[in-house]
Amino acid sequence: MSKNKPPHIKPSEAEVEILQILWDEQPCSVRRVHEIIGASKDVGYTTILKQLQRMQDKGLVTREPGDGKSFLYTAAQPEDLTQSNLLGRLMKTAFRGDVNELVMHALGDAKASGEDLEAIKDFIAQIEANSKGAK
Fold first, then answer.
1. Separation CA 36–CA 88 (nearest Å)
2. Interior angle at CA 68, CA 52 and CA 50, nearest 5
3. Residues 6+ apart with CB under 8 A from 1
4. N or C of the chain: less Cβ packing under 10 Å?
5. Concatenated DSSP letters for 53-102?
6. Cβ(98)–Cβ(105) under 8 Å?
7. Mean pLDDT to the nearest integer, 8-17
8. What are the residues whose beta carbons fall under 8 Å from the beta carbon of 76, sequence distance 6 or more?
9. Is the pTM of this model over 0.90?
10. Residue 44 near residue 91 (C-beta atoms within 8 A)
């Protein structure tokens, strides 16, 4: 792994798909990642192997020796940190840093259930309470 890479690398869509598998099942072999992705799309084993090698070079994953000649891969960052980084990038690029526009767009396009909306209201109430307590 390169030591000069910044700590908050933002993965591509394909890389996020692999990271989601790793977060659920890590450490994980290339074969296992290929099995999971191959269940929903036609992708070669060597394609997954190359992607994981590039992700290791970028600092997105780490690897350790597994059984025989294989390696086991692990996500280098926790899921919540990667999600925060991706959301920050989306907010800056697509919504020009406007959190209100991001939230309104997300809620307008989503099929939020009554339960989802109640959870969002509770979350907003918690944020408001915390910000009042901080003043």
1. 28
2. 15
3. 56, 57, 59, 62, 76
4. C
5. HHHHHHTSEEEEE-STT-EEEEESS-HHHHHHHHHHHHHHHHSTT-HHHH
6. no
7. 85
8. 1, 59, 60, 61, 62
9. no
10. no
